Amino acid sequence: MRLSTRTRFRVMWLFHRAMEFEKTYHAVPEMPPLSRPRYFLLCHAIELALKAFLALHGESESDLRLKFGHDLKKVLKRAKEFGLTLTCC
Questions:
Q1: Three-state DSSP class for 30?
Q2: How far apart are CA 5 and CA 67, in angstroms?
Q3: Is residue 85 part of a domain?
Q4: Structural domain of residue 21, as residue ranges?
Q5: For residue 56, which phi and psi values (nearest 5 degrees)?
Q6: pTM of this structure
Q7: In this structure, are residues 76 and 50 in contact, taking their beta carbons and an 8 Å threshold?
Q8: Average pLDDT, whole number, for the chain?
Q9: Is-contact 38 25, C-beta < 8 A?
């Protein structure tokens, strides 16, 4: 599959933002029982990484925003339809 320059840029932008949020998640100390800001950072990193995967497989910018929003279940389901597999540890 040949990606347009715009699509390649979007994929890289999403991926780099995901990495920023993931790095910040690790930099914020844990505060039991649950650090909501830290949890948000991790969830947002996951969302952006999954959206980068979807963009790589042709999902449009508007679909990523309007069809999926911040619904991690929808984003993950669609990523699995494109062949994403998850393994533990």
A1: coil
A2: 23
A3: no
A4: 5-72
A5: -60, -30
A6: 0.90
A7: yes
A8: 93
A9: yes
